[in-house]
Write a structure and sequence with these properties.
Length: 251
């Protein structure tokens, strides 16, 4: 946590020195550079060489609406906002929940979905915040799950993993008592494991958004307009239905 705080502070300082591409520059180039993790199904996932998932398809639909081609970059989750502030790409779509610490380092779009962090454990394992007392929990490093699980009174060992899927694997292998992650991811995990695990309580809610470099208001405005349009013309609803069987927009 301390390390994450330092990183984001350093990031806020870095942001002052470099120039992000403006909307006019992006438009002129004809290509928008987008970064994601590619290891967070069903939102962003790299299957072989194919990048797919709800956020990948949504970002591509937004770019299309803006008349732009897409150049994707994948980065470990922990590096995504740092790379953004080093101008390696124009925006990030990787399920970042809006929180005050991140909002100091980057600017967020209007949220592209609403969700929460939920517990998953084996039957008989901890299913509520109270039951996490003294229990070990697996979470992905650098996430809001880590931040929120640490706040659970009396929680046992909180173990971090480089990817969310590695944190899930730790639960399945019995190396921890519970996993905390996205509630929709949790639903998929329970389904995939066919009853070997169960979903417990929601620990917190969050609004998830795309991130641009701080001050890149031209690009942010275009992204927000494209998202509003996609949410108005059925594009968003169709994608959401495909991945979740429901509409995950914030209401
Ligand atoms: N929503 C959580 C957060 O804001 C998890 C995001 C994880 N994203 C990813 N691509 N692994 O921290």
């Amino acid at each position: 946590m301390k390390r994450a705080l330092l990183t984001l502070t350093a990031l806020a300082l870095l942001a002052a020195n470099a120039e992000a591409r403006t909307w006019a520059e992006i438009k002129k180039s004809g290509t928008v550079k987008i970064a994601t993790e590619g290891a967070f199904p069903p939102f962003n996932v790299l299957k072989g060489k194919q990048l797919t998932g709800f956020e990948v398809e949504l970002a591509e639909a937004l770019a299309k609406q803006l008349g732009l081609k897409v150049q994707w970059t994948t980065q470990p989750f922990d590096n995504l906002l740092i790379g953004l502030n080093q101008d390696r790409y124009d925006f990030v779509i990787a399920s970042h929940g809006i929180n005050p610490e991140r909002a100091k380092a980057v600017d967020f779009s209007t949220p592209h979905y609403c969700t929460g962090g939920a517990i998953v454990a084996k039957p008989g394992g901890p299913m509520t915040a109270a039951a996490l007392k003294g229990k070990s929990v697996a979470v992905q490093v650098g996430t809001t799950y880590l931040e929120n699980v640490r706040k659970v009174p009396g929680v046992g060992d909180v173990k971090t993993y480089p990817t969310d899927t590695a944190a899930q694997a730790a639960l399945m292998a019995g190396r921890v008592d519970a996993w905390v992650g996205d509630k929709f991811t949790g639903i998929d995990l329970v389904k995939a494991q066919g009853g070997k695990v169960k979903q417990g309580d929601l620990l917190f809610n969050e609004r998830v958004a795309m991130a641009v470099k701080k001050g890149n208001s031209g690009l942010l405005k275009e992204l927000n307009a494209a998202l509003a349009k996609a949410q108005g013309n059925g594009t968003y609803a169709k994608l959401s239905q495909k991945y979740f069987g429901q509409d995950v927009r914030c209401r």
